[in-house]
Amino acid sequence: MKFPSMAEPEGRTLGDEEVAALERVIRSGMLNSVWGTEARALEREIAELHGVRHAIACSSGTAALHLAVVAAAPDPGDEIITTPITDFGTVAPILAQNAVPVFADVDPSDGNLDPAAVAALIGPRTRAIMAVHLFGAPARVDELRALADAHGLALIEDCAQAWLTELPDPAGGGGRDVRLAGTVGDVACLSLQQWKHITCGDGGLTLTGDDELARRMRLFSDKGWDRSAGRSHAAFGLNYRMTELQAAVARAQLAKLPGVVAARRRTAVQLLEALQGLPGVRLPRPEGHAWWLFPVVLPGGGAAELAGKLRAAGIPARAGYLDEPLNHAPVWQGPIYGASRYPLQGYAPRPCPEAERMVAETLMVIDWNENYTPDHVHLIAREMTRFLAPSSSRSDIGD
Ligand SMILES: *Cc1c(COP(=O)(O)O)cnc(C)c1O
Name one GO molecular function term (predicted). Predict the structure, then answer.
């Protein structure tokens, strides 16, 4: 059975709407968002979706995270606490602003930052906390918000894998107002890269409710150039602008986002039901999950063997998600700028035993897709059951 992949048309929602959007922009003659209308419209639509005042479109998720670090304004050498299980795009912007990443350990049930581990690392040079909603599961951002407020820190939410992830009701009850991930941090970041829920190839957005942070990020994304004030450069900045072509495709994709996430939720819940009670595996909690990937944890280890068995059956599964947690990445050994180790003189990333064990032994991820059918779910359930409960006589998961 073939599993649709996000690298192929069968696993994407790219169609006539995106083609029409591109044609509209190309025929307009204006491909640059400084003078065009598409990127500004995308920003309005994303801000409205999240109920925040500002969205700023930029060239990638990594660029968005760089803008978020710029907004947090660390002094050189200041520390930003983040997770070792994430894309390197979360961490690179910390270095780009001459700040120091401090890795806190994760909750072994879902790989998201453990607020107690974060609290233990807050010191005099800590400037911000960067949380990642890993694989689309809500990170514990309410607890991190409280920590950040108690210590005067910025909170950044990396929502690159978490389009329409929902946060738990703070009152603990069945509140009716959905709170989306990205609405608790001072700044949140989204990605439109090829492998995300929706895509324009590459692209990113930041969200913030703060006018001053929005101004700083907008300036940095456009060479420090306040376009309302002549040709004058108010601040240091780069060119992180999104093009009109990216924005037009992203707007067409945004219209399809609710359907994408709903379909992923439907099949992920089917798989959860089929795997209920299987020994030796900790299943993900479905509440609020946006199912970028479908992660499982094998507390006793053996993730690589399980992934190998699933791959042999044609299922796109991988152990660990990363080759090594980012606190073990080779980058920390080398110079950062030229031959200099600045800003990492004397730096050694902290051990993160839970993250290390997840990546090496216990975490397995299955690529997820809005075009999976019950047949895909059935095959995954059958192969996982064969591996984890070989003598199972479960009648619902036969051949
Ligand atoms: C993809 C991703 C990024 C980086 O986004 P790009 O658009 O690829 O630059 C950052 N953080 C996380 C968690 C991601 O999944």
Answer: transaminase activity
Q: What does pTM read for this prediction?
A: 0.97
**Could you tell me if 293 and 110 are in contact, meaning their C-beta atoms sit under 8 angstroms apart?**
no
For the Cβ of 87 lying below 6 angstroms from any atom of ligand 1, the answer is yes
For ligand 1, whether the C-beta of 204 sits within 6 Å is: yes
Contact assessment for residue 107 and residue 353, using Cβ atoms and an 8 Å cutoff: no
Query: Are 159 and 266 members of one domain?
Result: no
First to last CA, the chain: 13
Looking at the DSSP assignment, which residues form a beta bridge with residue 167?
179
CA 242 to ligand 1 center in whole angstroms: 16
Q: Is the domain of 39 the same as that of 154? A: yes
Whether residue 161 is found in the same domain as residue 196 = yes
Q: Which atom of ligand 1 has the smallest separation from the CA of 63? A: 9
- 34-90 pLDDT, tens digit each: 999 999 999 999 999 999 999 999 999 999 999 999 999 999 999 999 999 999 999
Out of 91, 157, 191, 253, mutate this one to test ligand 1's pocket (max ligand atoms within 8 Å of CB): namely 191
Q: Is 158 a pocket residue for ligand 1 (Cβ < 6 Å)?
A: yes
Residue 162 and residue 25 share a domain: yes
Among 91, 193, 246, which is best to mutate for testing ligand 1, by the most ligand atoms less than 8 A from CB? 193
The last residue of a domain, from among 254, 283, 306:
254
Answer yes or no: is 399 within a domain.
Answer: no
- Domain of residue 331, CATH code: 3.90.1150.10
- What is the reported pLDDT for 334? 83
Q: Which residues of the chain have pLDDT under 70?
A: 172-176, 392-399
Same-domain check for residues 80 and 224: yes
Q: How much is the pLDDT for 170?
A: 76
What is d(CA 289, CA 276) in angstroms, rounded to the nearest whole number? 17
Check pocket membership of 61 for ligand 1, CB cut-off 6 A: yes
Instruction: Judge if 138 and 36 occupy the same domain.
Output: yes
Structural domain span for residue 362: 257-390
Probe ligand 1: pick from 65, 85, 87, 163, max atoms within 8 Å of CB? 87
For residue 161, the ligand 1 atom closest to its alpha carbon is 15
Closest-CA residue to 389 (of 269, 312, 274, 270): 274
Pocket of ligand 1 contains residue 60 by CB under 6 Å: yes
In this structure, the answer to whether residues 103 and 178 fall within a common structural domain is yes
Three-point CA angle 240, 167, 283, nearest 5°: 105
